[in-house]
Amino acid sequence: MASRSPLVCASNCLQNILFRDAFTISRVLTCYQPVRYRKRSSRHPEWFVRRRVKSFDEGLTQENKQFIKDLTVEQYKNKPSPLKEEPLERGEWDLRTRRTGVLALKIGVIPQWRKDGTKIETTLLQIIDNHVIRYSPPEKFAQSAGWKPWWGRKYGSVVVGALSCEPHLFSKEYNNLFTEAGVPPKRKMTRFLVSPNAAIQPGLPLTAMHFRVGDYIDAQAKTIDYGFQGVVKRHGMKGGPASHGGTKWHRRMGGTGGGGNMAGIWKGKKMPGHMGADWNFAKGLRILRINTKYNVLYVTGTTPGGNHCYVRIMDTCLPNRRREIQNEPPMPTFYPEDVTDQIQEEYIDETLFDFKEPSIEYIDEESNK
Amino acid sequence: MNIIQKHICRCLIQKCNSGNVPLSFVPARQATVLNWLLDKHRKSQLSQQPEKEDDIEQETIMVPRDYKYLYPEFLPPANYRHRDRIREKLERQDMFCRRTMIEVPEFYVGSILAVNVADTYAPSKNTRFVGLCISRENDGLRTNFILRNHIDGNGIEIKYDMYSPLLQSIEVLKLEKRLDDELFYLRDCPPEYSTIQFDMEPIHLPTGSAVPLNTIKVPLGPRPWDKKWDIKNFKGLQPSNRVLGKRAAIRLERSAKPWEEHDLMKQYRENINDEDVETVLKEVVLKTKKKSTKSQRRQ
Amino acid sequence: MSLKIPYSQTARKLRGTFGVGSGPSGRIKRLRMCVTGLIRHERIESTFARCDETRGYAERLINIASRHGDKDKYAMEVADYWLLEKDLIHKLFKVIVPRYENHRSSYTKLYMLPKELPGYGKDMGVLELKDNPWPQVVPKQRETKYFLTNMLVDELRKEHHRTKRSPFVNKILETSADNIDIDSIQNQYILDNLVDNDEGKTKNDQSHENKND
Question: Does the keyword field hold Magnesium (chain A) (predicted)?
Fold first, then answer.
C-alpha cells in the first residue's frame, strides 16, 4: 500500500479516507470462558477497536479540509451498493421469529389524549440514519467469544449502527468495520439476536416503518447517572424523623442485621453506593403514532434514560402482547417496494385522539332512547 | 519549558478554544448526544435522508412585541437539557391543529373566563364554569390555567389543560391584567374578591384599545394562611398589620438574597434568550396570519 | 442576545476566600472583583474555574451595555453594580462596546495554563478580552500552508476541479471497495462480539468529539 503514494505516510486523515486496507493481524478465536470483573469497569473488552485517532493537528488549510469533506460525501454517494448483488431470501414470519431492533434516540416526553378523553404521557423516539452493518448466522455466531452459552445455538446476530459520521474522525480499524455494508462509519452500534428466518442483508436502512401502529415493543436504555447516593434516594428507605429529638438521624439506614445465629451483614444488603448508569428495560409499550417524515415513534409511558440518550427498541417478549398470526410484520424489515400506494406522513392509532378532529363530546344515551 | 510541557500547553490551549462548543459540562458517563451535534447529524449530507430546511423567508417577518405575552405557551423551556428542535416542532404542529378546531382567545392572569367542558357525570354531559384566571403555567401541549370562584361559601379552583380535546369552548367575559403574575394569594383573602356571578354578561372593549390594567389592592384575611404572603412582596396585596417577632424578623433578614438581583447568569439560565424567542414566534406569526384576518378580537 | 460561549445549566460553587466570604454571596463578591479586573487590565490570571465563571458575567455585561446603550437606566444600574471602580463605567460604554460593534463571536477568550511538573494544586487559566493591546498568549504558530500534506492535497484538489474527477481519485474510489478482504478474520471477530454496554468506548469519547468537531 505504501508503494502507491507518499501521501500514505504524510497524512493520517487521508489514510482513513482514501486508502483503506485490511492488513490486519489474524487473531485466534477462543471458546467461552467466564471472566469475573467489576460491574462498571473502565477496562476495555477483548475485542475493543481503537476508535479515535490521537489528537494530532495536521495543519490542513480551510480549503483542503472542505475538499476532503466533499470527497467523502461523493465517495459514499457513488459507491456501488452491496444490496444489488444477490439479495438474501426473505423468510416468512411465524410466532417464534425474532426480528432485528432499531437504535433510536429519546427526544422528549409530551402528553396526548385518548378518544375517551383520558390523558396519557407519550415518549418520542427518533430513528436517525439506521443501517444494518453485519449479519452473522447462528453457526458462525456461536463460535465467537462474545457468545454466551445460555443464548443457545438458534440465534444469529445483527449489528445495527446509527448516526453516520465523517471517517476522518475515527481510526482506520474502526472505519474498516463498515466496508461490507458500504455506509459511512457510525457513531454508535448495537447488536441484536435474530432468528435465522429473519436474516437481513448488510447495508439495508431501517426506518420507523419497521414497526406498525398498535404494536408492542420493549425499550432498553441506560438510566440517568446519579453518582454515589445515600440509602433514601437509592433504595427509597424511610430515614428518620426531622424533629422530635432526631439528633444526627435523618437519612440513615437503620439496623443491618440481627443477633444470635443469623448475625452479621448478609450478602446483598441494601446500602449506599453508585446509582444509575445501568441498563434497564421498559417492556410492553404500545406504539400510538408514527411520523414518517422525521422517523419518530410515539410510545406509551416513559423509557429509561434522560433526554437524547440512545434507546434499543425491539419487538416485545411478553407473551400476551405479541402479534397474532394474521397480522404479520414486515419481514425482515420494511421495503418500500412492498407498498403500492404512497406512504402517509402520519399513522395514528385507533384509540388515540387526532388533533385534526373536532373536540370530544359525550352522548347522552338515556335521552336518545 | 521542556518539550513535554510545551506539548501539554499546546494541547490544553487547543482544548479551550475549540469554538462555540460546550466542553466539560456534560459528564462523560452520561451517554447522551448534545443538541448541536444531533442537529448536525440530522442535516448532514452523509445521512440517508437529510432533513430539508423550510424555505421560508424568515428574515422578512416582523414579530409584534406583545406576541411574547400573547402566546406564552409556544415558547420552549429555558433549560437546554429539556430542549429538542424536532420535538418542539411536532408539538407546535399539534397545537396549531387544535387551534383551528377551537378558538383560544387572548387572555391574561386576572381576566374572567367561562369554560365549557365535556363531562360524563354531568346530566347534560356538559359543564360550564365561570371564574377568575389565577395562574397560567407550563408550555407546549402541557399548558394549563386555573380558574377560581367562590360558590356557596366554598372557594373552588379548577385546573384546565388548554389543549385537551374535552374543552368545548373558552370565552372571555372580562379582559384585563393584574399587577402580579400569580394570584394564589386570593385563597387567603376575603371571598368577595374572588366571587363571580355565573350569569355575568361579557364586557366588550372598544376597538383598538389596549388591555386595561386593574390596579386593585386586595387586603389579606385573618391568619392562618397557606403561605407567608406578606413577606413575598406582591404588588396587588395591601401591606398587612402583622408584627413580626424577634426571631421571625431575624429569619426574614437571613432569608433575603440581595445578590440575586443582579446575578446576570442566573437570569440568563432561567429565561429563554431573545434569539430563540424570535425564531419560534416567526412560525407563530405565519400560522396565525390567515386566521387573524378572519376573526379579530370580538368587539 | 444569546451567549456565544459554552455555559452550564447549574452554577459552580466557588471556594470562599479570606476577606470576601464563602457561599453564594461571597461568590458574587469575588466575581465582581474579577470582572472589574478584566475590564481594567483586559487580561487576568486566576484558577480555571473562577475564570470560566467570570467569563459568563463579563459577556453578559458587555451584551447588555451594547444593546441598551449608556442612556438606559437598567444598563447603568448593572454596570454600576458589577464595576467596583467607577471610572471603568466610562471605559465600558465608550471603549469596549464600540470595539465589539461588528463582532459575531464571543468577546472573551479563555486559556488553560500548563501545570508545573510534578503537578499539584488547581488548574490555572488566563481570561482576556479580544483585540487587547497585550502580546499574544499563544506564540505565533508556524504557517501550515507549505506543509507537505497541504501541498499534496492542493495539487489533488486542483486536478479534481479541472477534470471533474481526477484519474487518481477515480482509481482509488473504484479499487478501495473491491480490494478489501471482507471475510478477514478480524472484522468478523470484532463485529460478532460487539457488546452494547461498552463503557470503555464511550467514556472518553465526548471530550474528544468536541475537540475535533
Answer: no
pLDDT of residue C13: 92
B65 reaches C (C-beta below 8 A): no
Rounded CA-CA distance C99/C92 in Å is 10
Nearest to C4 among B1, B9, B20 (CB): B20
Of B8, B260, B269, the CB nearest to C9: B269
CA–CA distance from A220 to each of A59, A302, C193 (Å)? 42, 11, 19
By the CB < 8 Å criterion, does A21 face chain C? yes
Q: Are A124 and A110 in contact (CB under 8 A)?
A: yes
Q: Is C10 helix (H, G, I), strand (E, B) or coil?
A: coil
Helix (H, G, I), strand (E, B) or coil at A339: coil
Helix, coil or strand: residue A166: coil
For an interface test with A, give the residue of B14, B81, B86, B137 to mutate (most A CBs within 10 A).
Answer: B86
DSSP character string of C170-209: HHHHHHHHHHS-TT-HHHHHHHHT--S--HHHHHTHHHHH
Q: Are the beta carbons of B125 and A117 separated by less than 8 Å?
A: no
CB of B46 within 8 Å of a chain C CB? The answer is no
pTM of the model: 0.85
Q: Which spans in chain A are helix H?
A: 7-10, 12-17, 62-78, 138-143, 172-176, 231-235, 365-368
Report the C-alpha gap between C197 and A37 in whole angstroms.
14
Residues of B in contact with A105 (CB under 8 A): 33, 38
DSSP state of C89: H
Rounded to an integer, what distance in angstroms lies between the CA atom of residue B143 and that of residue B245? 41
Closest to C186 (Cβ–Cβ): which among A20, A27, A64? A27
Look at B7 and C159; give whichever has higher pLDDT. C159
Q: In what order do the strands lie in the sheet with C124-129?
A: C43-47, C124-129, C108-112
Residue A6 half-sphere exposure toward CB, CA atoms < 13 A: 6
Phi, psi (rounded to 5 degrees) for C157: -65, -45
**Residue C101: how many CA atoms within 13 Å on its side-chain side?**
6
pLDDT at A5 over 60: no
In the Cβ-directed half-sphere of C109, how many Cα atoms lie within 13 Å? 17
Distance CA B50, CA A294 (A): 10
- Count the neighbouring beta carbons within 10 Å of the beta carbon of residue A358: 10
Q: Whole-angstrom Cα distance, residue C85 to residue A175? A: 57
- Tens-place pLDDT, residues B227-245: 989 888 899 999 988 888 9
Question: What is d(CA A220, CA A311) in angstroms, rounded to the nearest whole number?
Answer: 6
Overall size of chain A counted in residues: 369
Q: Which residue of C has its CA nearest to B259?
A: C25
Give dist(CA B41, CA A162) in Å, integer: 10
Count CB neighbours of B299 within 10 A: 9
Dist CA A345 CA B93 (whole Å): 13
Cell numbers found for residue A328: 404479520
Q: Which residue in chain B is spatially nearest to A203 when comparing CA positions? A: B48
The mean-pLDDT minimum among A138-152, B236-250, C55-69 falls in A138-152
- Whether pLDDT at B62 is above 70: yes
Q: Are C29 and C50 spatial neighbours (Cβ–Cβ below 8 Å)? A: no
Provide CB contacts within 8 A for C48, sequence distance 6+.
C112, C113, C122, C123, C124, C125
Q: Measure the CA–CA gap between C112 and C45, rounded to whole angstroms.
A: 10
A231 neighbors A152 (Cβ within 8 angstroms)? no
Which residue bears the cell 444593546?
Answer: C67
Q: Which residues of A are less than 8 Å from B42 in CB distance?
A: 128
Residue B116 to residue B133: CA distance in whole angstroms: 15
Mean pLDDT of A94-101: 92
